[in-house]
């Protein structure tokens, strides 16, 4: 059996890695963009769009979690998700049509890579928290049964 301290440390390590997964992928995209001869401005736009999206998501999720009404929380989260997606799409279309298709495509690729990595990271965090919660409930149940 694994000691409790080791069990607690593993989820914390996963959470630390998962928390920075999106920004790590965004930063790792720079050498890839340079290597393939892509525009640095496209990379920068993709990172800025992702950071703005991420910040707004964190703020919205915080407010939604603080809401006393589940309907309000779900509505806020859903509206925020759709509004952020449309905003990113509109910005990328404007850049493609008015400035540079290559920069817009580069930005879209960087944004999607960082967004996907962040989503995977948040999924890992949720999974490890749920597993820890279930383990704690099982431990409490087995303690009450032995008494």
Short description:
The protein has helices spanning 4-19, 21-35, 40-66, 70-98, 101-146.
Which secondary-structure class do the elements indicate? Answer: mainly alpha
Unreliable parts: 1-7
Average pLDDT number: 85
Radius of gyration: 20 Å
**Beta content:** under 5%
Relative helix content = over 70%
Please outline the major beta sheet: none
SSE string, helices as H and strands as E: HHHHH
Q: How many beta strands in the DSSP annotation?
A: 0
Task: Specify the number of helices.
Answer: 5
* Span between termini: 22 Å
Number of domains: 1
Shape, principal axes of CA atoms: elongated
How would you name the oligomeric state of the polypeptide chains in this document? single chain
Question: What's the arrangement of secondary structure elements?
Answer:
Layout: H1 4-19, H2 21-35, H3 40-66, H4 70-98, H5 101-146
Task: Tell me what the structure shows.
With 147 residues, this protein is mainly alpha-helical. It has one domain (42-146). The chain is built from five helices and no strands. It has helices at 4-19, 21-35, 40-66, 70-98, 101-146. Helix 1 runs antiparallel to helix 5 (101-146), helix 2 runs antiparallel to helix 5 (101-146) and helix 3 (40-66) runs antiparallel to helix 4 (70-98). It is elongated, with a radius of gyration of 20 Å. Residues 1-7 have low confidence and may be disordered.
Task: Based on the model shown, name its key terms.
147 residues, mainly alpha, 90% helix
């Amino acid at each position: 059996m694994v000691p409790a301290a080791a069990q607690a440390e593993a989820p914390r390590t996963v959470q630390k890695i998962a928390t920075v997964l999106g920004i790590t992928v965004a930063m790792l995209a720079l050498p890839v963009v340079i290597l393939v001869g892509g525009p640095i401005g496209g990379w920068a736009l993709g990172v800025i769009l992702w950071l703005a999206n991420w910040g707004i998501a964190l703020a919205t999720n915080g407010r939604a979690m603080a809401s006393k009404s589940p309907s309000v929380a779900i509505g806020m989260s859903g509206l925020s998700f759709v509004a952020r997606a449309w905003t990113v799409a509109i910005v990328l279309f404007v850049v493609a049509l008015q400035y540079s298709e290559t920069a817009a495509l580069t930005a879209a690729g960087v944004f999607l890579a960082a967004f996907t990595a962040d989503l995977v990271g948040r999924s890992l965090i949720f999974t490890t928290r749920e597993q820890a919660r279930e383990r704690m409930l099982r431990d409490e149940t087995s303690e009450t049964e032995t008494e």
